[in-house]
């Protein structure tokens, strides 16, 4: 049997992950078996187990890949992008929207599954770290306008740098609370309400 190329291996892994996500969304994580994933993927059990040890491994990989997608999206934002810019970027990116929605549905459908808790334990801190990094230049600009810090970064005191870090962190937390509320409300609301809910969420965030 010929050896698989790296591209083929990556395609197989993606195929398995997408099949697993479809099963998780349809049946819930807890009620999905590896047999379900094997059947949905159209691959052999040997092929799947050569890539993943089980469904928890697949879930963790899926979450990490989606976090990387978010990180890559944030890296396209211009320096100084604020909370509204981040929300607008997410709202207009269908892939990221779908990923967030899928993860929310899987989490909501298996609230008490210990595997879900383990797989998502680091998600919020990692996501917050990405947002804090994105918002730090914006936080510095905002505090400079308010004359609370020196606009020249080379002349800032450690106390001023700490003020920037705190403001970026607090704003990131506020963003995450608004964003999660928006996604949750959109998830349980009618599809035609999504644009209105987006405008409401946008109005709650600083520019």
Q: Overview of this structure, please?
A:
It is a single chain. This protein is mostly helical and 207 residues long. It folds into 2 domains: 1-52, Homeodomain-like (Arc Repressor Mutant, subunit A), CATH 1.10.10; 62-204, no CATH class. It has helices at residues 6-27, 34-41, 45-49, 55-75, 83-91, 94-109, 114-120, 123-145, 158-188, 194-204. Helix 1 crosses helix 2. The model has no long low-confidence stretch (mean pLDDT 88). It comes from Rothia mucilaginosa (strain DY-18). InterPro entries: DNA-bd_HTH_TetR-type_CS, Homeodomain-like_sf, HTH-type_TetR-like_transc_reg, HTH_TetR. Residues 10-70 form the HTH tetR-type domain. This is Transcriptional regulator.
List keywords for this structure.
10 helices; Arc Repressor Mutant, subunit A; transcription cis-regulatory region binding; 207 residues; HTH_TetR; mainly alpha
Q: What topology emerges from the helices and strands here?
A:
Layout: H1 6-27, H2 34-41, H3 45-49, H4 55-75, H5 83-91, H6 94-109, H7 114-120, H8 123-145, H9 158-188, H10 194-204
Helix pairs in contact: 1-2, 1-4, 4-6, 4-7, 4-8, 5-10, 8-9, 9-10
Organism: Rothia mucilaginosa (strain DY-18)
Keywords: DNA-binding
DNA-binding region: 33-52
Estimate the strand proportion: under 5%
Please give the domain count: 2
Terminal CA distance: 57 Å
- Low-confidence segments, given as residue ranges, are none
Q: From the alpha carbons, calculate the radius of gyration and give it in angstroms.
A: 20 Å
Structural class: mainly alpha
Count the DSSP helices.
10
Shape: elongated
Q: Give the helix level as a range of percent.
A: over 70%
H/E topology pattern: HHHHHHHHHH
Provide mean pLDDT, rounded: 88
Organism: Rothia mucilaginosa (strain DY-18) (Stomatococcus mucilaginosus)
Domain HTH tetR-type: 10-70
DNA-binding region: 33-52
Keywords: DNA-binding
């Amino acid at each position: 049997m010929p050896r698989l190329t790296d591209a083929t291996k990556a395609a197989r892994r993606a195929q398995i992950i997408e099949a697993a996500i479809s099963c998780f969304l349809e049946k819930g994580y807890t009620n999905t078996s590896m047999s379900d994933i094997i059947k949905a993927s159209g691959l052999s059990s040997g092929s799947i187990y050569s890539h993943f040890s089980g469904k928890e491994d697949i879930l963790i990989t899926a979450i990490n890949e989606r976090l990387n997608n978010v990180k890559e999206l944030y890296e396209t934002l211009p320096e100084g992008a604020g909370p509204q810019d981040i929300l607008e970027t997410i709202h207009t990116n269908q892939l990221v929207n779908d990923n967030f929605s899928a993860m929310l549905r899987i989490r909501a459908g298996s609230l008490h599954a210990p595997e879900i808790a383990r797989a998502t334990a680091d998600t919020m801190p990692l996501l917050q770290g990405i947002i804090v990094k994105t918002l730090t230049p914006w936080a510095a600009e905002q505090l400079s306008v308010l004359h609370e810090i020196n606009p020249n970064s080379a002349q800032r005191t450690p106390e001023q740098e700490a003020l920037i870090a705190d403001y970026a962190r607090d704003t990131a937390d506020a963003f995450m609370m608004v964003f999660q509320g928006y996604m949750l409300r959109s998830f349980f609301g009618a599809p035609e309400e999504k644009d209105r809910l987006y405008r409401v969420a946008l109005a709650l965030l600083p520019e």
